[in-house]
Amino acid sequence: MGASQSQLTREELRDYTELTYLSKKEIIYAFKRFKAISPDQVNSDKEIRLPVRDVEILPEFSSNPFRDRLLRTFSSLKDDRLSFEDFLDLLSVLSEAAPIDVKMEYAFQVFDFNDDGELCEEDLAELIHRLTWLHDKKLEAQEVQLLIENVLREADLDQNGRLSLLEFQHCMRKNPDFESCFRLRL
After folding, report:
1. Of the candidates 110, 98, 106, 109, which has an alpha carbon nearest to the alpha carbon of residue 19?
2. What angle separates helix 84-93 from helix 67-74, to the nearest 10 degrees?
3. Which residues are registered as beta bridge partners of 119?
4. Does residue 155 have a pLDDT over 70?
5. Do domains 2-93 and 100-181 have the same CATH topology?
6. Cut 0.85: pTM above it
7. Is 151 helix (H, G, I), strand (E, B) or coil?
8. Of 24, 120, 121, 160, which has the maximum CB count within 10 A?
């Protein structure tokens, strides 16, 4: 272990480059960012799973209203902890090189707050609240409901009151800003 374990090997770099949408340079930078969270722990064990509460304080995530959902979605063991590979998967999906379909699939999971595989009215309300949380003035309940009704009218193709992944993807393809909003530059 020790210092020899605190760096990525050539084989790991090669594998990560093949398995992600990240370049070698981005992977090395990602490892440095992960290591910065808890240098002593990562130096002694590259397989360490760090608590998401420690990861979410990174500047890349600290002001993101969906940071808790992003980190939970990418926690492979759903234990509110991230391994370096989980962290790398997250950065890969948020990279500029990730295909829009991959981004939409993960965005759907992030926005599915009750984890039932659909975006229901409660999920949409939570989404709206989080998107508007930075403003001093919160939306009134009627305004939120009107937004939900408009979203469902536009995107709920089978009119069942919920959005499936396919309906969400169909709607997001019409949104020219989606890709730039679901991105993190390294």
Report:
1. 98
2. 120
3. 163
4. yes
5. yes
6. yes
7. helix
8. 120
CATH, range 100-181: 1.10.238.10
Q: For residues 108 and 165, what is the distance between their CA atoms, to the nearest angstrom?
A: 7
Q: How far is C-alpha 13 from the geometric centre of its chain's CA atoms? A: 22
- CA–CA gap between residue 106 and residue 74 (Å, rounded): 9
- Distance between CA atoms of residues 109 and 66, nearest Å: 11
pLDDT cut 90: percent of the chain above it: 79
Name the burial class of residue 163, with classes exposed (0-12), middle (13-18) and buried (19+) by CB atoms within 10 angstroms of its CB.
buried
153 class by beta-carbon count within 10 Å (0-12 exposed, 13-18 middle, 19+ buried): exposed
d(CA 158, CA 139): 28
Listed by start position, the domains of the chain span 2-93, 100-181
